[in-house]
Amino acid sequence: MEDNYISPDELAGMALFAAVVEAGSLTAAAERLALSKSAVSKALVAQEARLAAKLLQRTTRRQSLTEVGMAYYEHCRRVLLEAGEARRAVDRLHAQPVGVLRITAPISFGSEHLSRHMPELLKRHPGMQVDLQLSDRLVDLAEEGYDLAIRVTDKPDPLLVARALAPIRWVVCASPAYLAQHGTPMQPSGLAGHACLTYPALTPGGAWPFLLQGQPWQQPVSGPLRMNNSLALLLAALGGLGIVRLPSFAASGQLADGSLRPLLQDYAVPPQTALAVYLPNRYLSPKVRACVDFLRERLGNGGRPYWDHWLDGAGK
């Protein structure tokens, strides 16, 4: 053990010694600390034994500090002042949203939607700072030190706390130019004759999911382009390269203005959910709570989000 190690007992002895000095007597200190006079006396003797030094001269009428005790008390007082500051720092952090909030989110969702709302969040809570890292990989919150993750899934991690932000619809779509040249598939099997633009990690087994007569159906798809970013696939589809399956949050503007047309809506699978997930914590940080509540408010409180306004025009 290092020579400068301070044990919990010694720290407690420092606090007790300071209380005796400031109270002016063992009796007064005992009353202040809600201890017996004998308990205070024994603790003081134990502290002097640890230090191998006499701290107080005590008689039946008065007590006075020794030279060593006077120097030691000054250091004890500074330690206790710092301890008080530590407690106040914790109180401040748990009283209001302050400090750095580390968030991880998928690239497309974070770029399109989280980033646009960060100014308002920080305006509401000026004591906060946000470190938003965009990545499509599954981040380990504990291992990598993140406070919060945004995930799009229908199978949340049971070891994490999850709060729903908004439903995420997946839409098969293509540009009018592509459909005019190659025709419009009327059922999932019709995709077999089309150029399909795919996101490999979201196309397990090289197939897109559908509901056919209420039952899950995996339709094999293939095409000239594979990319690992929804926004990049969006641009390729707008260029008329083929049919794409995108989350509606990435293509809502294009679906609304007609530059992309939704396909096979009668066969669409149920929406997934955008979730805010964080590690279980009995004392949830105010900055995490503030961010989650804010995002729920802005994204629809688990109901229909603003980016699905295109559905009104689609008759859904």
From TrEMBL:
PANTHER family (alphabetical): HTH-TYPE TRANSCRIPTIONAL ACTIVATOR TTDR-RELATED, HTH-TYPE TRANSCRIPTIONAL REGULATOR
Record domain HTH lysR-type: where: 9-66
CDD domains associated with the record: PBP2_CrgA_like (cd08422)
Family as reported in the entry's similarity comment: Belongs to the LysR transcriptional regulatory family.
Protein name: LysR family transcriptional regulator
Source organism (scientific name): Chitinimonas viridis
Keywords: DNA-binding, Transcription, Transcription regulation
One Pfam family in the UniProt entry: HTH_1
